[in-house]
Amino acid sequence: MPRLVDVALPIPLFRTFSYAIGEEVPAVLPGTRVIVPLRGRREVGIVVGERHEAEAQHAYKDVLGFPDASPAVPPALFSTLEWIARHYAVSFGSALRAALPVLLTSASAPNPGDKRERVAVLSRRLDSLMERDEVFRRSARQREVYELLEALRDEAPVRTLREQLGVSDGVIGALAKRGFIRLESRSTLRDPFAGRPTGPSPVHEPTPMQRAVIDGLASAAPGTVALLHGVTGSGKTLVYLELLRRLLAQPHASAIVLVPEIALTPQTVGRFRSVFGDQVAVLHSGLSDGERLDAWRVLHRGERRIAVGARSAIFAPLQNVRAIIVDEEHEATYKQNESPRYSARDVAMVRGRLEGAVVVLGSATPSLESWTNAREGKFVLHSLMDRVGGGTLPQVEIIDVRGPRRPVPSETPGVRVPAPPQMPTILDPFRRVISERLERALQECVARDEQAILLLNRRGYASFLQCVSCGDVRACPNCSISLTYHRTPERLTCHYCAHQEMPPERCVRCRADTVRQKGLGTQQVERLLGDRMPKLRIARMDMDTTTGKWAHADILDRVGRHEVDVLLGTQMIAKGLDFANVTLVGVIDADVGLNLPDFRASERTFQLLAQVAGRAGRGEKPGQVVVQTRTPDHHAIQCAIHHDFIGFAARELADRESPPYPPTVRLANVVVSGLDEAEVAKASQAVSEWLKRLVEARAIEGLRLIGPAPCAIDRIKQRWRWHLLLKSGNTGQLTKVLLYLAQRFKMPDRAGLR
Ligand code: ADP
Ligand code: ZN
């Protein structure tokens, strides 16, 4: 019998392929990359294991090559990926694809070269000045190069010499020829963060409360998951840093730090880089393929042992992982929305167990899932209920913007004539957006030379355009969603598919010229504020102002240097920012998002408000928060303004019992999409019936099917969407059913059905 290996390929097929290897090949470990033939092409696959029996009469093809000296996927990561395949009902190949840099998946170039650069190294010293004058008598340029190299501790990339001195390659070549320098080719790590300042990071002594938490975490049993519930400003970052410092004292120990989004958390990332320096590899979604590969390699070789990054950093090819930190663990960005779909927080828990690492989930507003796990004793709970340095949580005021509108006070000096009550009031567009109270707070804040953050979680200028005669709302031709009005440049834009069109002059339906802007976006607030307070220095941060690679960091740097009075933005500004001079936070409309058709709408609103409120008063100066709302009694808003996470959790968990929603049950959403609405409806009906038959045939208990029904947004990018929900108290059973569905259900091959 030939020696065989089973190989997973990065394709969405639920099977492996077997190939033959020669007798002389040493044992092949799981996780090793191989090059194999598949349907006339060469592919990169990953060995799942050696196979010990062959099928009779089957002609096995040979493995064509072994590009690596050691497995590309280390053992614990390999097992984590197996879990992902089972738990999220995807093929092992798809899970692998999420874990390997794309540049390692091409069979034509399985080992793309490191980027190399030429470095000049001083090789002959000229100690006396006389000697120098003599040697460089007729070549002043060569002398400049020589002396710059000396100043740069004897070596520098040729590029640097050229840039700093403006010398030609000829000058450098001549120096080399005369034997004064040596030119070497070296591999460089393409580290896009290399040029970024790490920021000042005074390393503080932990407070006694922080120390108690650090001690608890550092001595936790391997595989422990801890929930660190610490109010905003309680110093969670220092806990992470100290914990890593202790655990990484052992040789070869490594760690993974997950943050919701690198671009939004430059301060947190900067702290890790300033404490751990070049032990840190930052994995950024803006990395080029080459940069990603470089970062992967330094981690794989163990040259750097802390991976800091967004959700996919959970796949860092590290070994001997001692700690996994998930900062702001409640954030929705930890979920990957494309196949393979996964929650990095849940993957972190599994990988932590397999590695024997301690997993720390940190948040001021934990997800209800984690909170429940902590209360049931599955997680260890650590709390930091006070701000460091005795700072207090900011005072929060609610402004009920439903109240009767008063006319704008006259600016003219002299007798003020009160408006007769029956007269219709002319609304000042500014006042409709910013209440008197918030305006005054803003003016006072700026007058004290302090800074403010203003939150409106809706970008664009107006939410939508509507004809007031016939009611028609301009909607996207590809998606069932209204288009958002943007002013600069003037466009109607779909926030789902990026479709753009010019705003119509007349209503497209009834031809009346009564098309009006409705709703409010950040662009409009920026303009209203600018008109009202021309001296105010406003920075706007939303998806439209942050398309460049460093755009977020640049805006935040300006805030940090106090070149900005008001930072205005969407939920982007609610996360992790720590500016001591920000003393006012204003929420322009707390109700955005509260009525979305999502069972987590209240939870998201609570988190957003609590987090943004936590940005105020983080230094010595006290903070103030003003929240404008039309639903001041909603529990999400009430609990947020009282900084009452525990009260919110109790109320919201009770609401999720009936009808049951997570964490009371596990929920799976099966979405059927396609180009034809009737076909999509029919197919989702077929899926539903298939599942019902399965439930009956296998006598599966406690699994509830809801739907099928059109999704809340029933068309995106021209694809119609229907869904059905599966609820179950038994996770293992639910994932088994889903895996079975993914593997066995035959979707008709028409109308682009998926
Ligand atoms: P959190 O993430 O819990 O909101 P941070 O980790 O951002 O809070 O810490 C809030 C602020 O407190 C930061 O400016 C941090 O430098 C400071 N800080 C944290 N721990 C200490 C300490 N032990 N002594 C002094 N300052 C501290
Ligand atoms: Zn669209």
Mean pLDDT: 87
What hetero molecules are bound to the protein chains?
adenosine-5'-diphosphate, zinc ion
Largest sheet report: 7 strands, parallel
- The DSSP helix count reads 21
The value of Rg in angstroms is 30 Å
- Record field, number of beta strands: 30
CA-CA gap between termini: 41 Å
Helix content: 25-40%
Shape: globular
Structural class: alpha/beta
**Largest sheet, spatial ordering of strands:** 10-11-9-12-15-8-16
Contiguous runs where pLDDT drops below 50 for at least 5 residues: 405-426
| Portion in beta strands | 15-25%
Task: Write a structural description.
The chain has 754 residues and is an alpha/beta fold. The chain has 21 helices and 30 strands. A 7-stranded parallel β-sheet has the order 10-11-9-12-15-8-16, with helices on both faces. Strands 17-27-26-18-25-24 form a 6-stranded parallel β-sheet, sandwiched between helices. It has a 4-stranded antiparallel β-sheet with strand order 2-1-4-3. Helix 10 (289-300) links the parallel strand 10 (280-283) and strand 11 (306-309). The longest helix is centred in the C-terminal third of the chain and has 21 residues, at 677-697. It is globular, with a radius of gyration of 30 Å. Mean pLDDT is 87; it is low at 405-426. The chain binds adenosine-5'-diphosphate and zinc ion (ZN). Adenosine-5'-diphosphate is lined by residues 204-207, 210, 230, 232-238, 388-389, 578, 618.
